[in-house]
Amino acid sequence: MEKKLTTAATSQRYDVVLIGGGAMSTTLGTLIKELEPDWSIALYENLSQAGLESSDPWNNAGTGHAALCELNYAPMKNGVVNPAKALGINEQFQVSRQFWSYLVRNNYVQDPSTFINPLPHMSFVWGDDHAEYLRVRYEALSAQPLFEQMEHSEDPDTIGSWAPLLTQGRDRNQRIAASRVKDGTDVDFGALTQQLAGHLAKSGVDVHYEHKITDLSRANTGWDVSVTNNISGEKTKVHAKFVFIGAGGGALHLLQKTGIPESKGYGGFPVSGHFMRCFDENIINQHNAKVYGQASVGAPPMSVPHLDTRFVNGRRSLMFGPYAGFSTNFLKSGSLLDLPLSVRPHNLLPMLGVAKDNMSLVTYLVSELTKSKGRKFESLTEFFPEANPESWEMITAGQRVQVIKKGTDSAGVLQFGTEVITSADGTVGALLGASPGASTAAPIMVELLKRCFPNHAAGWAPKLTEIIPSYGQKLNENQALREEVLTETNRTLKLI
């Protein structure tokens, strides 16, 4: 049952309230400002600035998830790799690139090199079974126009020319295989998010930092949103016709507070992690790629090991990991009570079912938690045989909350993607989940707008097509449009 209507007085009224200052909220706010310049918007962020949780560059891999190197997006079944999921994610990422290109053309953000840089994407495996899988994957994906530039090799010298650290000191008798796409990217989503938040503030959006949303209640024409100022302690209430809950790991609690029927049955499973980071110039200069490997048995997609070049605040570094961990808080800045306080009668069975049916994940997490520092470093030497522990430091990554939802038989299903939940009347929307996350923020937010404002969709189409030239079309199926879009986004984002 939904919460009862409230009649408490409000201090401010908005057309839109955005909860959370991450990539999702700032993307949605920017789109709405372009589509409806006269709408009043407020953004509330619990921390001191935008992009400090999942969007922060050291809390995520910054891959620019385009399915070029992430093997979990193209699994093999009965000897066959279906390219459909990888294609879908690549299409989504191309939409985000077009959105970012629009931002650059209109001077809404700074020089694109402040948030996106060209970087080859590679997949790298060893052993006969994994090498055979990578060959099949390459054949399936390279036949698709969006992946036609993919290269593949099992020759150590060729692989070494792509990424020298992978082959230096490696046994020449070990079978290895790699695939590469030269036109991948590294994205600093923290820098992009902060620039979008700055643009929103300049565009008339009321941006509030150090403000925590504590409750949402139905009102006659939308929602009353309870806000607490973290510094002064002042409590206020604002009214919004539409509310977007984009608070990362904090979104589930706020979604539950709405009481909308669509929120029933959802739970969350938090996964924490660590990365190793290197600033040694002698090592960094020998590696210029994102290299993803094969996931361990039972590992969630966010725990797929990878050795990455990173560009953060104008400085290059290397990052390896992640090493999965477990903590019951839903945000890096959250509370250890987040998980137990998220349990409701409507999601208890799904959450218990997930625990019962995902013992391989539980086993994996236990094994990760009990690994010594030395054993963790061994994982890096599988990628980089000559790695020296003295050149690497361990850092704490961000929290990720995997979505738990009811299946067809009411049992729990663990979702490793993102889930958009909207109320039947379109007055509230929320985003749950993790990967591919910020990389696909633009298409996800466009879809949310269409679901929540169906009466505006037709009128918005021309502007959306200006922002995203491939709007409503698939680049993989339209050669002329694909070439035009890729050429323009590469030029504008300085990726060539």
Automatic annotation (TrEMBL):
EC number: 1.1.5.4
Name recorded for this polypeptide: Probable malate:quinone oxidoreductase
Family membership: Belongs to the MQO family.
SUPFAM superfamilies: FAD/NAD(P)-binding domain (SSF51905)
Organism whose genome encodes this protein: Micrococcoides hystricis
One GO molecular-function entry: L-malate dehydrogenase (quinone) activity
Cofactors required: FAD
HAMAP family on file: MQO
Pathway where it operates: Carbohydrate metabolism; tricarboxylic acid cycle; oxaloacetate from (S)-malate (quinone route): step 1/1
Top-level taxon of origin: Bacteria
Key words, A-Z: FAD, Flavoprotein, Oxidoreductase, Tricarboxylic acid cycle
PANTHER family per record: L-2-HYDROXYGLUTARATE DEHYDROGENASE, MITOCHONDRIAL
Pfam families cross-referenced by the UniProt entry: Mqo (PF06039)
Catalytic activity field: (S)-malate + a quinone = a quinol + oxaloacetate
